[in-house]
Amino acid sequence: MKKTRTDFQSRLGKGRKKHCGLQLMETFFQLNDLAASKELFNTIMNYAIKRNSWIKEDPSVVLHFHQAMRSFIRAGYFIMLKKKKKTVNTQLEEISPLVLGLLSEKEYQNPQLVFKKAFREYSIKEFDYFISGMVYFSLGIYDHLPERNMISPYIHLTKMLDAAYLILERKEKI
User: Contact, 77 vs 124, CB < 8 A?
Assistant: First the structure.
């Protein structure tokens, strides 16, 4: 009888096409609302910085969000690898600053720049480390604070959420 080995490693990215990043993004936004995701991410970050308090959210919600953000980061990496640039020319005079969010005008026109800049500064492992650390420190009371810079990855991930939503929104219009 032939023995078969089960591969327990993640198959994410193995033998998949680069366009699966968009499919992962679509799945992320089907399960998570943009505003709710940004709010929960902000709450996790705030409680991770506070020394004597922990997040009031159900731990299962926080851990589910952690897993969703990990897949979101990988989807962003796949989008960053994409060679083909689709820019939609928009007239920036009509756009209010509230619509731009943290994105600059260039990033609003070409949201893929956000992913390129983020993954030029940080690797997938560093983003995973950041997300895991924030979840870890937000779920309990600890004397230690995270030892690394937390603001820069936080800003990158918030901008990536906005950029991914823009990419999917523009994809539907085309």
Answer: yes
Question: pLDDT, tens digit, for every residue of 3-40?
Answer: 555 444 444 445 445 458 888 899 999 999 999 999 99
Question: Rounded distance, CA 143 to CA 85, Å?
Answer: 46
Q: Who's near 113: CB < 8 A, 6+ residues apart?
A: 106, 107
How many CA atoms lie within 13 Å of 114's alpha carbon, on the beta-carbon side? 29
- Cβ-in-10-Å burial (0-12, 13-18, 19+) of 19 comes to exposed
Residues in CB range of 86: below 8 A, 6 or more apart: 170, 171, 174
**Residue in 35, 73, 50, 32 with CA at minimum distance from that of residue 134:** 50
> pTM of the prediction?
0.79
Q: Which residues contact 152 (CB under 8 A, 6 or more apart)?
A: 121, 122
Dihedral, 118, 147, 42, 137 alpha carbons, nearest 10: 130
Distance, C-alpha 20 to centroid of its chain: 15
Q: Give the pLDDT confidence of 85-135 residue by residue, as tens digits.
A: 554 444 445 665 555 677 888 888 889 999 999 999 999 999 999 999 899
